[in-house]
């Protein structure tokens, strides 16, 4: 081969025939950005190297073969090595060595245009097309030795040498040790050894015993994650997966059981259940009915308005047990309201707010990481077990969204997935962590966490909704996040529903809740309804183990993501839940407009649904689009929905009974809810404060009871009032202690209090109590008395107000 010497590699003379050695090679796809850890398995051994600036790396099996070649690792984007970057730097047959003695040969059509033509490499170690020559050679000091006979001639025989020193195969003597060893070394060897683990057990072959606990490694799975283990998993057909990292490139149907920390990499998904968990969720969900909800409103509204030039989108809301607070995250889009990754110039961020009255929210806190152009698709969870708020979100650099992204993990070409959390109820946040390479399938061109509340099980595990886009198809799944004993996290990607073209059978957004029996319910947005129209619908899938899902029901909505929450009834021993779903239906329940927000409810774990006629917002034409809903654990729920042209977030706090006009959708388990005067009678009427339960009226500061729908006051108000002008009557519903500083004559007291304290503030301005027979008897003061700088306590009776001394 002609050699063209060119002094292009830092003074080293190289050629198109042989290149200067590389420090490491990779026969799998590598992200050509920043520091990478590469494991190379060649005929000279297995090595793991963390790249440093300027390190020469040979890439032989990139997803796009155009990217194959010699590269220099860099802190940011890698660059091609100067001796493998030009039109005359390589030809078909060019050799590349490693510093460890391996050698590869270029396979490409001449002339080779690096960066434009696909390039392939094949190993020539040790300068032979038969790369396993040494592995199948019997080496001797002499220059020649005869080869061994075929496998059929070698079976169950021992190796010997003739008088010339050449190998021959010998039959072992029957009954000899060699004979026994050959039997034990055969495929059936374990069947010749029997074992009885305890005296009471039966004696059986070890082959039977070992088959009781088969693992994927018995079928050839590679625990290092370097080799493809897909065929081994399929051959195993569902069994134990020992701790380790496994590369799987397709979605598997069987259910497997992890024994320790298992990490699945590659483009596929594996249905993994912890071995100790068996087939069911062992822990029931957090009982949201125990969460206090703060004030109850029959209806209450507020608006969070976006700044000029900004748009509020994709709200996600959760309720916590911390000071009756709710937590809200949403995306703020700047410049345009396009979905993330659809505009090259758009910027966006994630904001977080809190509320303790479910109507007014705190000032926003930006929680997305600096340095990323676009951040969106926020999802949020409140972890009762750890007192932690989790937020997952997605970022993009330029136009890399759905329809524009690329496979692999390059942040300049595809979405990036992030997680951050707060252990201080939102006042401080952890540094966001990029988990893209851990959770994203290699072959997905886009993958993101849909905006929704995150399911937190009674175990403290998170089921984070996750969608990935491959070959024009949406795949709906989830990421199971588990916090290990050392505080680190493990992530397991699971497939729920494999979509179809044009968005059918799943359109990207979803939500998961854990029901009262420990099972999981997933709501998945679809582009099409049951009639095949593009109006949209929400589909519901059920799982009892978190990995196997079955279709259960659906409801027709607009082509939009819905909100879902539930009231758990576990405190009463009832494993059922009331599930609430909110979604826009169009202003006449039949078109595509994203308005007329409606609610559905299910009391049979999502098998059937009742749609309520009442509109969530009084005006059906209010644009609501994406919505999120949270139960407040006090007979009320809170909805946050996108506003008109995404210029606001609409907030609605409603009493369930007042909304549905039914009593079976509210629960109270011994808490003391708070009501206002304006809501009190309505709440009682619809049993949002259930029969015989206690509640506090925040306006009157009284303790009350709902008895058969009627208000029964159990304590008098502690409110005091200064009266500075002359009056003839007092209202005991306004206050029960009155400080009177003007000369006046009192004739009556109205209201429902049982006693009232009247204080004369100055002897010079006396208060005269007088009985007036023209006043209604129940409100009449039944004493004639003058107070000059003194006080009197009056008690209500059905015949009027009497002083406690009984003396006029």
Report on this model:
The protein is mainly β and 808 residues long. It folds into five domains: 6-123, no CATH class; 213-277; 293-660, Neuraminidase, CATH 2.120.10.10; 674-713, no CATH class; 720-803, no CATH class. Helices cover 6% and strands 39% of the residues. The chain is built from seven helices and 60 strands. The strands form 17 sheets. The protein has a five-stranded mixed sheet with strand order 21-47-48-49-50. It starts with 5 loop residues before the first strand and ends in a 5-residue tail after the last strand.
Q: Mean of residue pLDDT?
A: 83
What sort of overall outline do the alpha carbons produce when their principal axes are compared?
A: elongated
Please count the beta strands (DSSP E, at least 2 residues each). Answer: 60
Uncertain stretches: 1-6, 8-12, 569-574, 663-670
Amount of helix:
under 10%
Radius of gyration: 37 Å
Main sheet makeup: 5 strands, mixed
Helix vs. strand class: mainly beta
Q: Count the helices. How many?
A: 7
At CATH level 3, the topology of the largest domain is Neuraminidase
Task: Tell me the distance between the termini.
Answer: 128 Å
Amount of beta strand:
35-45%
- Could you say what the CATH architecture of the largest domain is? 6 Propeller
Count up the domains. Answer: 5
Instruction: Enumerate the strands of the largest sheet in spatial order, edge to edge or round the barrel.
Output: 21-47-48-49-50
Which CATH class of the largest domain applies here? Answer: Mainly Beta
Pfam families: BNR_2
InterPro entries: Sialidase (IPR011040), Sialidase_fam (IPR026856), Sialidase_sf (IPR036278)
Family: Belongs to the glycosyl hydrolase 33 family.
Protein name: exo-alpha-sialidase
């Amino acid at each position: 081969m002609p050699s063209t010497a060119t002094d292009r590699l830092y003074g080293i003379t190289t050629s198109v025939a042989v290149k200067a050695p590389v420090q490491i090679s990779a026969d799998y796809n590598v992200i050509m950005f920043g520091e990478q850890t590469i494991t190379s398995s060649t005929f000279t051994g297995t090595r793991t190297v963390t790249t440093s600036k300027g390190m020469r790396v040979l890439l032989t099996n990139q997803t796009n073969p155009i990217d194959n070649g010699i590269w220099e690792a860099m802190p940011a984007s890698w660059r091609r090595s100067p001796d493998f970057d030009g039109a005359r730097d390589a030809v078909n047959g060019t050799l590349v060595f490693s510093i460890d003695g391996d050698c590869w040969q270029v396979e490409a059509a001449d002339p080779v245009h690096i960066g434009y033509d696909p390039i392939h490499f094949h190993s020539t170690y040790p300068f032979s097309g038969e790369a396993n020559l040494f592995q199948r050679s019997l080496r001797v000091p002499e220059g020649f030795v005869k080869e061994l006979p075929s496998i059929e001639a070698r079976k169950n025989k021992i190796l010997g040498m003739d008088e010339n020193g050449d190998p021959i195969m010998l039959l072992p003597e029957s009954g000899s040790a060699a004979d026994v060893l050959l039997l034990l070394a055969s495929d059936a060897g374990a069947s010749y050894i029997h074992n009885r683990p305890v005296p009471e057990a039966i004696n059986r072959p070890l082959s039977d015993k070992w088959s009781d606990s088969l693992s994927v490694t018995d079928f050839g799975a590679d625990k290092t994650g370097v080799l493809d283990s897909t065929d081994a998993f399929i051959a195993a057909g569902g069994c134990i997966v020992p701790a380790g990292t496994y590369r799987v490139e397709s979605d598997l149907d069987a259910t497997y059981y992890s024994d320790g920390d298992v990490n699945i990499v590659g483009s596929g998904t594996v249905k993994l259940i912890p071995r100790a968990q068996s087939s069911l969720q062992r822990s029931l969900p957090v009982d949201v009915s125990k969460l206090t909800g703060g004030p109850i409103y029959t209806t209450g509204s507020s608006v969070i308005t976006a700044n000029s030039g900004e748009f509020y989108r994709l709200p996600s809301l959760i309720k916590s047990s911390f000071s009756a607070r709710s937590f809200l995250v949403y995306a703020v889009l700047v410049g345009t309201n396009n979905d993330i990754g659809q505009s090259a110039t758009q910027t966006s961020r994630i904001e977080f707010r809190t509320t303790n009255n479910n109507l007014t929210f705190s000032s926003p806190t930006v929680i997305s990481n600096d340095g990323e152009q676009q951040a969106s698709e926020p999802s949020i969870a409140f972890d009762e077990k750890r007192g932690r708020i989790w937020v997952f979100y997605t970022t993009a650099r330029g136009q890399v969204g759905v329809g524009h992204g690329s496979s692999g993990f390059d942040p300049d070409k595809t979405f990036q997935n992030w997680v951050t959390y707060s252990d201080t109820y939102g006042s401080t946040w952890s540094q966001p962590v990029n988990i893209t390479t851990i959770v994203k399938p290699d072959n997905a061109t886009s993958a993101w966490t849909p905006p929704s509340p995150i399911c937190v099980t009674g175990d403290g595990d998170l089921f984070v909704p996750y969608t990935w886009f491959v070959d024009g198809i949406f795949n709906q799944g989830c990421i199971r996040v588990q916090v290990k004993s050392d505080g680190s996290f493990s992530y397991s990607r699971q497939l729920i529903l494999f979509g179809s073209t044009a968005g059918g059978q799943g359109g990207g957004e979803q939500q998961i809740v854990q029901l009262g029996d420990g099972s999981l319910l997933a709501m998945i947005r679809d582009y099409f309804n049951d009639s095949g129209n593009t109006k949209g619908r929400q589909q519901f899938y059920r799982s009892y183990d978190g990995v196997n899902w079955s279709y259960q029901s659906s409801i027709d909505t607009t082509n939009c993501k819905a909100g879902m929450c539930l009231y758990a009834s576990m405190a009463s021993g009832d494993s059922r839940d009331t599930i609430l779903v909110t979604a826009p239906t169009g202003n006449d329940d039949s078109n595509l407009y994203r308005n007329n927000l409606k609610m559905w409810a299910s009391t049979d774990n999502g098998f059937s649904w009742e749609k309520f006629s009442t509109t969530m917002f009084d005006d059906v034409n209010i644009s609501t689009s994406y919505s999120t809903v949270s139960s407040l654990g006090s007979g009320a729920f809170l909805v946050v929905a996108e506003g008109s042209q995404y210029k606001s977030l609409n907030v609605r706090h409603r009493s369930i009974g007042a909304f549905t006009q039914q009593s079976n959708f509210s629960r109270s388990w011994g808490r003391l809810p708070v009501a206002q005067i304006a809501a009190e009678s309505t709440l009682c009427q619809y049993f949002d404060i259930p029969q015989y339960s206690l509640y506090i009226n925040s306006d009157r500061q009284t303790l009350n009871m709902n008895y058969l729908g009627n208000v029964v006051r159990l304590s008098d108000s502690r409110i005091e009032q200064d009266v500075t002008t002359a009056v003839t009557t007092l209202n005991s519903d306004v206050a029960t202690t009155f400080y009177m500083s003007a000369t006046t004559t009192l004739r009556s007291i109205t209201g429902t209090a049982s006693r009232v304290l009247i204080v004369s503030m100055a002897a010079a301005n006396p208060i005269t109590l007088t009985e007036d027979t023209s006043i209604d008897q129940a409100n009449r003061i039944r004493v004639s008395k003058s107070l000059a700088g003194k006080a009197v306590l009056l008690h209500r009776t059905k015949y009027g107000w009497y002083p406690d001394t009984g003396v006029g």
